[in-house]
Design a protein that fits this description.
This protein is α+β, with helices and mostly antiparallel strands and 268 residues long. The chain contains 9 helices and 6 strands, in the order E-H-H-H-E-E-H-H-H-H-E-E-H-H-E. Helix 5 packs across helix 6 and helix 7 crosses helix 9.
């Protein structure tokens, strides 16, 4: 499901959310401008679970090589030491959330943050929202590490931190309406869902995929457990902040007990 918009306007400009979006874009532009050195940027600043587990040992990463043989050029996969970070490896639990692996990775993450982040910032305030985002991202990185502590695959992306924002949104605005696009083969179905349904389905999908994916130390893919962990960390942080009385009051136009109807549209 792809969210298009929600029906909760912000009371003030989400300056921190805009700053995070801008930072993600600028860092990615730096990555691609570095050319082949962009791979070393990922190795140095991405979170490699095995490096967190054994911070004083070099970590091998996979490398594809073309070897000349009597039968022509053939591709072989070998290993070489990963580029070392310029600081203690534990800091990569944070720096990894500013990196992305491609345009679609960046756009997808930024779009979800744009949809859900402004309303969470509205209730937390600018400074607290910035801290919340960082803690959610680091928490997601830690849970991903715990799910596969011997993996040598660099982990990058803001998905875990954004999942934390979504976890907070889930608790703050459960009955908000989210206009969503659902691709079904050659059709696009546009449906308006309560936020708790949209985010609940999203979380369930992450959990099922994470349970099925396994934790191969060399295989790449989606960091499902970072998404799951970020969502849970964000929800937990939100509850702590609520009980500490640090949340701003909800806008007057939000009625938590109100049920939201579901509407469907078809585009052919």
């Amino acid at each position: 499901m792809i969210p298009i918009r929600d029906n909760i306007p912000s009371r003030s400009p989400p300056m921190i959310n805009y700053a995070i979006l801008t930072l993600n874009v600028l860092v990615f532009l730096y990555q691609i401008s570095a050319g082949r050195a962009g791979e070393q940027i990922i190795e140095r600043y991405g979170m490699i679970p095995a490096r967190i587990t054994r911070p004083n040992e070099p970590v091998p990463v996979r490398q594809s090589m073309l070897l000349e043989t009597p039968f022509g050029l053939q591709q072989r996969v070998g290993h070489r030491p990963a580029a070392a970070p310029p600081f203690h490896p534990y800091w990569t639990l944070l720096t990894c959330i500013a990196l992305h692996g491609g345009w679609m990775h960046l756009i997808g993450n930024c779009w979800f943050l744009y949809i859900f982040g402004d309303n969470v910032e509205d209730r937390l305030g600018h400074g607290l929202y910035a801290l919340f985002y960082i803690v959610s991202g680091v928490g997601a990185s830690i849970i991903h590490w715990a799910a596969g502590p011997d993996s040598i695959v660099p982990t990058i992306g803001a998905s875990g931190a954004i999942a934390g924002v979504m976890g907070a949104y889930f608790l703050l605005y459960p009955h908000a309406r989210v206009l969503s696009v659902i691709p079904i083969v050659v059709f696009l179905e546009i449906i308006v869902l309560p936020a708790y349904v949209f985010l609940g389905i999203w979380f369930l999908f992450q959990f099922v995929q994470g349970s099925l994916a396994g934790t191969s130390p060399t295989g790449g893919g989606v960091a499902w457990w970072a998404h799951i962990g970020g969502f849970l960390v964000g929800g937990g942080l939100l509850l702590l902040l609520k009980y500490a009385g640090l949340l701003k009051s909800a806008p007057e136009y939000i009625h938590p007990g109100r049920r939201v109807a579901v509407y469907r549209y078809h585009i052919r």
